[in-house]
Amino acid sequence: ETGVTQTPRHLVMGMTNKKSLKCEQHLGHNAMYWYKQSAKKPLELMFVYNFKEQTENNSVPSRFSPECPNSSHLFLHLHTLQPEDSALYLCASSQGLAGVYEQYFGPGTRLTVT
Amino acid sequence: AQTVTQSQPEMSVQEAETVTLSCTYDTSESDYYLFWYKQPPSRQMILVIRQEAYKQQNATENRFSVNFQKAAKSFSLKISDSQLGDAAMYFCAYVSNSGYALNFGKGTSLLVTP
């Protein structure tokens, strides 16, 4: 595997379920990101981790819980979601923070909350 | 706060022709980076081209070039000799030199017709 991978690619869950999204990067990067992509809206940054430490939580509801056990893996734990949380969730990584470093994106997980 | 505006929700171009996608941004920073990302139907977001604000010379990458007008806060993407594989959503993005959070526009859907 190369680049940034995400599993699952599609997920349908009920509002009372608990599920997790997984992201893995094979680029040796130190920073990882979660973005939310909703229809007709710009991508929204959710969380940023640098060297496994969370550096940003962009006012995300607590029903989204990130976890970064090491610089290569990033999880997004989901519980008691709302229908408006249905979206494409994109993971990205970069060598470091700061605009000079290109962010590489995964293919995304299409989440549907019923 | 920085905002990125893409005023063209959809654009269409014939194969082998040239098309220009518009982007404007708002910032009080003087040092920043601008990007164009492409998201094909397969959903993997990839970087097309990058521009450093301190460079006056417009960036080019093969058939892709930008027209960066710093005073006007404008950053348009020109695609020459359009190909069917260029069909995708194109996102303009901004990040300050001291930041790492990409600010995206809403995107422009590009259709390439034979």
Structural class of chain A, please? Answer: mainly beta
What is the β-strand count of chain A? Answer: 11
Class per helix and strand makeup of chain B:
mainly beta
Tell me the fraction of residues in β-strands of chain B, as a range: over 45%
Low-pLDDT segments, ≥5 res of chain B: none
- Identify the overall geometry of chain B: globular
Oligomer: heterodimer
Q: Please provide the count of β strands of chain B.
A: 12
- Residue stretches of chain A low in confidence (pLDDT < 50, at least 5 long) are none
Mean pLDDT score of chain A, rounded? 91
Using only C-alpha atoms, the radius of gyration of chain A works out to: 13 Å
Per DSSP, the total helix count of chain A is: 0
Span from first to last CA of chain B? 41 Å
What level of helicity do the residues of chain A show?
Answer: under 10%
Task: List SSEs of chain B in N-to-C order.
Answer: EEEEEEEEEEEE
Task: Please state the overall shape of chain A, judged from the principal axes of the Cα atoms.
Answer: globular
In N-to-C order, the SSE pattern of chain A is EEEEEEEEEEE
Largest sheet of chain B: 6 strands, mixed
User: Count the helices of chain B. How many?
Assistant: 0
Q: Into which percent range does the helicity of residues of chain B fall?
A: under 10%
- What is the residue-mean pLDDT of chain B, rounded to a whole number? 94
Structural write-up:
The complex is a heterodimer of chains A (114) and B (114). Chain A has 114 residues and is mainly beta. Helices cover 0% and strands 56% of the residues of chain A. Chain A has strands at 4-7, 10-13, 18-25, 31-37, 44-50, 53-57, 64-70, 73-79, 87-94, 104-105, 109-113. In chain A, β7 (64-70) and β8 (73-79) form a beta hairpin. Chain A is globular, with a radius of gyration of 13 Å. Chain B is built from no helices and twelve strands. The model of chain B has no long low-confidence stretch (mean pLDDT 94). Chain B has strands spanning 3-5, 10-14, 19-21, 24-26, 32-39, 46-52, 60-61, 64-69, 74-79, 88-96, 103-104, 108-113. Chain B starts with a strand and ends with a strand. In chain B, strands 2, 5, 6, 10, 11 and 12 form a six-stranded mixed beta sheet that branches. In chain B, β7 and β8 (64-69) form a beta hairpin. By secondary structure, chain B is an all-beta fold. Helices cover 0% and strands 53% of the residues of chain B. Classes of the chains: A mainly beta (114), B mainly beta (114). The A-B interface holds A 31, 40-43, 45, 48, 55-56, 58, 88, 90, 92, 94, 97-108 and B 4, 32-33, 37, 42-47, 50, 91, 95-107.
